[in-house]
Specification:
The complex is a heterodimer of chains A (about 775) and B (about 150). Chain A is an alpha+beta fold. Chain A folds into 3 domains: about 210 residues, Aldehyde Oxidoreductase, domain 4; about 160 residues, 2-Layer Sandwich (Aldehyde Oxidoreductase, domain 4); about 350 residues, Aldehyde oxidase/xanthine dehydrogenase, molybdopterin binding domain (Aldehyde Oxidoreductase, domain 4). In chain A, about 25% of the residues lie in helices and about 20% in strands. Chain A is globular. Chain B is an alpha+beta fold. Chain B folds into 2 domains: about 70 residues, Ubiquitin-like (UB roll), CATH 3.10.20; about 60 residues, DNA polymerase, domain 1, CATH 1.10.150.120. Chain B has a 5-stranded mixed β-sheet with strand order 2-1-5-3-4, sandwiched between helices. In chain B, helix 2 crosses helix 5. Classes of the chains: A alpha+beta (about 775), B alpha+beta (about 150). The interface between A and B is large, with 69 and 60 residues.
Chain lengths: ~775, ~150
Amino acid sequence: MTYMFDPEPIPAGAIVNVSRRFLLKGAVATGTLVLGASLLPGRAMAEWATGAGAMPGGTVNDPHVYIAIDPSGLVTILTNRSEMGTGVRTSLPMVVADEMEADWSRVQVKQAPGDETKYGNQDTDGSRSVRHFVQPMRQCGAAMRTMLEQAAAKRWGVDPSEVKADNHVVVHLTSGYKAGFGELAAAAAALLTPPVSTLKLKDPSQFRYIGTGTISIVDLHDITTGHAPYGIDAKIPGMKFAVVARPPVVGGKLVSFDATEALKVPGVEKVVEVKGWPWPSKFMPVGGVAVVARNTGSAIKGREKLQIVWDNGANATYDSGAFRKAMEETASQPGLVVRNDGDADAALKSAAKVVTAQYYIPHLSHATMEPPSATVNVADGKCVAYAATQSPGGCRDDLAKILGLSVDDVTVNVPLLGGGFGRKSKWDYVLEAALVSKTVNAPIKLTWTREDDIQHDFYHTVSVERIDAGVDASGKVVAWRHRSVAPSIASTFKAGVDHEAPFELGMGLVDNPFDIPNLRCENGACTAHTRIGWFRSVSNIPHGFAVQSMVAELAAALGRDPKDMLLTLIGPDRIVDPRKSPGVKGFWNYGDPFDTYPIDTARLRRVAERAAQAAGWGKTLPKGQGLGIAAHRSFLTYVATVAHVAVDDHGNLSVPNVYTTMDCGFHINPERIRSQIEGAAVMGLALAKNSEITFKNGRVEQQNFDGFMVARIDEAPLHVHVDIVPADWSVPASGVGEPGLPPFAPALCNAIFAATGKRIRSLPIGQQLST
Amino acid sequence: MVTLKVNGQNFTYDGDPEVPLLWVLRDELGLTGTKFGCGAGLCGACTVHLDGTAVRSCSVEVSDAADKTIVTIEGLDPHGDHLVQRVWREANVPQCGYCHAGQIMQAAALLAANPKPAPDDVMQTMSGNICRCGCYQRIAEAIALASTGA
């Protein structure tokens, strides 16, 4: 894989004509216009402020985009986001193309390697790509268009105001002169870049691609022919193939191994130790024994013959059943107060009625269809990696560190990711491949088998959520006490963590939008015994499941309609600001300014109303069928889902229809938003119905897709009706990839209750409906 | 030595004859369109056609594929325009796309055996192919498109 671009860093906040620099390097053809932009949105033009400049972990989010147009008219857009199925590799370049009036059929997209000095923060996570980059992408496209128009005006000796770019051509309005973008590229390349403050964005009514949903993803054809390059498909001449035997318990380590029998397996060439780091150590490898062979199949067979003695360490007692009991005990006691409006304890004491429910959501594995894999060559003081990673920058830094190289000598290429869901934000597998390559002195393709993936993941946390709600004599909910108990992701970074971090508490707990005067959130102490990591929508899964289930439980207890109960609890239209609530420390608003993205109950109410209307809420359904609703704000986006379920006499569950309304503000590609919501329904069904990771003696009990169950087509919702709330440029763009997931499980379980009267409080549902 | 007939070409493989066909296709022949998903015949990502039948290449020893006609996603159609590939694009089926080689090979075998499968047949046959992104709604749409002659 070669890159057309080898750009220099661009000063912050600027758009720069780098054509000459690129030409001198031989990177582009003569007559090519290349713009580079440091894409913190130019302040003069920013419609809304974002958190792009202050990313978590101190990373500066300063994305650089490079756009080139050569004399043939071919436009090349460099993208710095990892593609894992959201469509971002298509959507953001689409913004540039639309704004510059390029013909999409003459645009190609190139993937940037990991280099945060040149490309800014490249972490593709947190559902933040569009919301952080749509403004700067528009600016960059506008600069390109403006320069092409100026070049045409100069050529014709007319005022630039008299010419207009229109679908890859610049036209002189009065004379009808026309010039293609390609023929203008060289002249445009000789111009100075217009100051960002002078750029004029297109009128949204003139959008050709944005908001239309008519563009297919750029990789579609290659995907259907088997030619799309995924991380696991990378090829380096002379590469060997490796798998690793890892300590079965997190925190365990290798004592000794005997490779005699493994080395007798045909095709096995070497067996070497892989260095491990003590737990917790972020994303560093856990260590183990690597088997290197002529193909992966031989390596797997060799690994089966290894004789290994492990020291399982302190987590060898981890038992998820016992852990659940301990968490439930914790949830029965007061915890650390993390939000405290009014006096919930007193209000509960004096309430006419108290409704209490406790919910359990187990560990989950990401189970991306492409398991972790990396192809790495460490040779001659350099490291070249091909890695399906959501974080090529962090990965590159750690490769340099463990190999003792300068980051300049480390290249991380980013092929397509066969699914991400947060798993590929952790780059342990890339480091493993580098360590093995260095040890055996050959390029290595290292693959995690499915068993490796399911047994050594950074798991979604496990959670007990207890809610006590108090109702007064008039039927008004006056008290709400939500206790959350879950090991924190922070435990993967450092020892001694025993509470959820602010970014977890902000995901559906302390940002509770309900109109309840006495609202208290507590977080019980809990210590992790395995690696906990981000899983699509993160803590919103357990928090949202508990809160939205409890709404329907209250409705049932009070004889109210669940949708009306939800709307009553959402209350009047207003901004809810948790920063003003006592007890809330370091409120996490997904890293973005609250003023740009407040908690707006009018928007939450609206998605609930729209989804209910689409579903025909209130209609009569046959026996054994029911509707359930849930509404949840996450990643600054408002989503409501109504699930329509049917449960037969044997307890078999089906989901004939799902109605989801998403309000994600200004949006680019409704076609891909729909696909994300359809997919969220399937993943939501999986985690509600089937999926669970359990531990016994510190080891994961599931091995493959026969133990860790995900959803299959014959049980999946196949009629997901998606409604996207229209929004113009004045409504800041917000997340799409993750927020579809949290409302699904509670909507489903609320629908099951409506259909059967059976309340599901413990996920997965498993056999609960047949007993 | 095993001779493999893949996509109309002959290849020889001199390694362990018990290794799954999948790894020979991917690692020895460089045909990486066929994907690894589970290694146990549970997910369908590695589906190829063996003498016209859809099989999980992770669960077929390479020696058992010797001298048979093997078709992978790369060889399904010389121009990538097999009916299933076309409807897959028309319905914008893939998200990450990783499992789709297997999905397409499975659907192609299904439609070759029965050009107008009943919905239950589609569900039963395709239930062996996992898509974690959750493209099932569009997989069903695409197969319906194909079976109506789109």
